[in-house]
Amino acid sequence: AGLAGSTVVGGQDSEVAAAQRIVAGTQSMTLYKDSYELAMAAVEAAGKLAKGENVEVTGDYEGIPMLTVAPTTVDADNLDNILIGSGYMAEEEVYG
């Protein structure tokens, strides 16, 4: 929309296109949710539920209990370290 530089443009999907926009300067940031951390939280919760134990919920959405995993903010300063350094994306995908 031509708003780069005049407003903060963010996202929350950490897809390749978002990383490319951050590098280009047309997007300020995106949120990265580590798949390993999400999977571990789900496995731990499923194990507790299978044993009949309570799962400590960390929030709710319209009254539905949920388990949340804190995302990491990715911007131009840490994109290489977080998205590429973790193996989530290849350098060639982001930079061409």
SSE blueprint:
Blueprint: H1 16-24, E1 30-32, H2 35-50, E2 59-61, E3 64-66, E4 72-74, H3 79-84, H4 91-95
Antiparallel strand pairs: 1-4, 2-3
Structure overview:
The model has no long low-confidence stretch (mean pLDDT 92). It is elongated, with a radius of gyration of 17 Å. A hairpin with a 2-residue loop joins strand 2 and strand 3. The strands form two sheets. The protein has a two-stranded antiparallel sheet. Strands 2-3 form a two-stranded antiparallel ribbon. It has helices spanning 16-24, 35-50, 79-84, 91-95; strands at residues 30-32, 59-61, 64-66, 72-74. The protein starts with 15 loop residues before the first helix and ends with a helix. With 96 residues, it is of the alpha+beta class. It contains four helices and four strands. Helix content is 38%, strand content 12%.
| Percent strand | 5-15%
Taking the sheet with the most strands, its summary is: 2 strands, antiparallel
Mean of the pLDDT scores? 92
Task: Give helix and strand order, one letter per element, not per position.
Answer: HEHEEEHH
Shape: elongated
- Helical fraction: 25-40%
The end-to-end span amounts to 23 Å
Order of strands side by side in the largest beta sheet? 1-4
Q: Which runs of at least 5 residues are low in confidence (pLDDT < 50)?
A: none
Radius of gyration: 17 Å
Structural class: alpha+beta
Q: How many beta-strand elements?
A: 4
Q: Please work out how many helical segments DSSP would assign.
A: 4
